[in-house]
UniProtKB/TrEMBL annotation:
InterPro entries: DNA_recomb/repair_RecN (IPR004604), P-loop_NTPase (IPR027417), RecF/RecN/SMC_N (IPR003395)
Record's protein name: DNA repair protein RecN
Family according to the record: Belongs to the RecN family.
Example GO BP: DNA recombination
SUPFAM superfamilies for the chain: P-loop containing nucleoside triphosphate hydrolases
Record function comment: May be involved in recombinational repair of damaged DNA.
Gene Ontology MF term list: ATP binding
An example Gene Ontology CC term for this record: bacterial nucleoid
Keyword annotations of the record: ATP-binding, DNA damage, DNA repair, Nucleotide-binding
Any one Pfam family match given in the protein's UniProt record, by short name: SMC_N
């Protein structure tokens, strides 16, 4: 439950430190005193989006801290532990809002994002606003209220999650189907290109190019080679013979002067190398074959390789890399087909799961609707709508449309006059009737909630007298199982509270301030008397106030 709240520089609150108790606490005060400011501040602590306008005039920032006792809330403890925000049996929510609209949120002293605060707040507090009945004009809200009443919120959220996945995967499959046709055409082209590349000797392109060049110049190579061989060793005055004579002469000179030894050795080495070169050149020329057929085949091969290189806009040397790239692309395209098959299998599995969830949810909704009809009619009678009829009407949806709401939508139907056929709530209920039906739904939903703290912010607008007393009694009964905070302007409701907080506003030339204090029994009589009688409070009115408190 909410044990205390600290507010600083928020709206017209300078500073407020308030301890809260279990049971039903009523909050009252003059019109315009700011009865709902505490509720507004708490909503920011619970994750509502920040607004710079809430910072008190002249202040740099507003601060709100809410302290909760969570000893009896194991699911909250588990959540905090999962988020690594746990701190024994306590939970402190703190929100700081700067004058420029930026804000920071903290849980147990650790910074968190608003999504985390909002999720945690859903476990701790439920706020019913004074304008909540306006949401009943929207049929889409009706199914949410029914699911909440029936305890089906988690199941309906799971169904919506599955429906969203189905929608996402269906979209992907449609995109895949559109793309696969183009991909299949691409696959056919790649397969043809791969066949061409695999059949061509692309790994031997360099060797083939060299052989082709040699074959194309075979006659010239033979002519020049024979001339060179003759000059080296076959002509009468060939290089080898001349150099041999020189070596012989130097050998004779060497016998006289050892200084020529190095010259002799160099010439001797040159002679040996020339002889070896002559032998290699002779072998080369003997192996040089001028074969027109072989040249023709080489010419075809080199031409085909050039055509492939031109087709893929690469050099012949890059053809092997082109082959590898095409093989990888083909593998990726085939992987896309596998992805498509996997998505189809996942979609079929999700659709089956959706059908099971929706069928189960639909059955539970039907059962809950019959019970809700009875409970709302009972409360409508207590709230002055004795002839009222309330029904939850279901509109069936296509079972294969996989809507996030399931097999049906729901709309509240009412009749407030005898013999009148129930019609959509938005069409027949007056403002006063709508607020009472809304209040009945809020009270019923509150009875089924597991939340520790429920806040009712002027939900009794538009009612009075005996009806207001019934509302107060209903809220007081709720206060036996949960902490109830009720902002009210009805004396009959205020008298039912177990605790009473009074809001007062003070003004000076510089600023306006709001204060919120728990009042004594005597002060409470005066406050309820004020609510009954207005400006002039007589002894008779005070006696009436005492009677209200005594009856409560």
């Amino acid at each position: 439950m909410l044990t205390s709240i600290h507010i600083k520089d928020f709206a017209i609150i300078d500073q407020l430190d308030l301890d809260l108790k279990s049971g039903m606490t009523v909050i009252t005060g003059e019109t315009g005193a700011g009865k709902s400011i505490m509720v507004d501040a708490l909503s920011y602590a619970l994750g509502e989006r920040a607004d710079s306008g809430v910072v008190r005039n002249g202040a740099k920032r507003a601060e709100i801290s809410a302290y909760f006792d969570i000893k009896q809330l194991p699911h909250v403890k588990d959540w905090l532990e999962e988020q690594m925000l746990d701190d024994d049996d306590h939970c402190i929510l703190r929100r700081v809002i700067n004058h420029d609209g930026r804000s920071k949120a903290f849980v147990n002293g650790q910074p968190v994002n608003l999504a985390q605060v909002s999720e945690l707040g859903d476990f701790l507090v439920d706020i019913h606003g004074q304008h909540e009945h306006q949401s009943l004009f929207k049929p889409q809200v009706h199914l949410q209220l029914l699911d909440r009443y029936a305890g089906l919120t988690e199941q309906s959220a799971e169904l919506a999650k599955v429906a969203n996945k189905i929608s996402s995967i269906s979209g992907k499959l449609k995109a895949f189907q559109t793309a696969l046709k183009d991909k299949n055409d691409r696959k056919d082209l790649i397969s043809f290109q791969l066949q061409e590349l695999e059949q061509a000797p692309i790994d031997k392109a360099a060797d083939i190019e060299l052989e082709h060049k040699r074959a194309a110049n075979a006659s010239r190579l033979l002519e020049k080679g024979q001339q060179s061989l003759a000059a080296l060793s076959e002509d009468d005055e060939n290089i080898s013979s001349n150099l041999g004579r020189i070596v012989h002469q130097i050998s004779d000179m060497l016998a006289v002067d050892e200084g020529l030894k190095n010259t002799h050795d160099l010439l001797q080495s040159a002679l040996v190398e020339i002889d070896e070169a002559s032998h290699e050149l002779r072998d080369y020329l003997e192996g040089l074959d001028i074969d027109p057929q072989a040249y023709h085949e080489l010419d075809q091969q080199i031409s085909a390789l050039h055509d492939l290189a031109r087709k893929h806009q690469v050099s012949m040397e890059e053809l092997p890399q082109t082959l590898q790239a095409l093989q990888q692309e083909l593998e990726d395209l085939e992987g896309d087909e596998q992805t498509f098959d996997d998505l189809e299998k996942e979609l079929n599995k999700l659709e089956k799961h959706y059908q099971e969830l929706a069928k189960n949810l639909s059955s539970k909704r039907q059962t809950a609707a019959r019970k809700l009809n009875q409970e709302v009619v009972k409360l409508m009678q207590q709230l002055g709508l004795g002839n009222g009829v309330f029904e939850v009407a279901f509109n069936q949806q296509d079972a294969v449309s996989f809507k996030s709401t399931g097999f049906e939508t729901a709309e509240f139907m009412v009749s407030t006059n005898p013999g009148q056929k129930p019609m959509p709530l938005r069409k027949v209920a007056s403002g006063g009737e709508l607020s009472r039906i809304s209040l009945a739904l809020q009270v019923i939903n509150a009875q089924t909630t597991q939340l520790p703290t429920l806040i009712f912010d002027e939900v009794d607008v538009g009612i009075g007298g005996g009806t207001a007393e019934i509302v107060g009694t209903l809220l007081a009964e709720l206060g036996k199982k949960a902490q109830i905070l009720c902002v009210t302007h009805q004396a009959q409701v205020a008298a039912q509270g177990h605790h009473h907080l009074q809001v007062s506003k003070s003004q000076d030339k510089k600023a306006t301030q709001t204060q919120l204090l728990e009042i004594t029994e005597t002060q409470r009589i005066e406050e309820i008397a004020r609510m009954i009688g207005g400006i002039e409070i007589t002894d008779t009115i005070r006696q009436h106030a005492k009677e209200l408190l005594k009856t409560a």
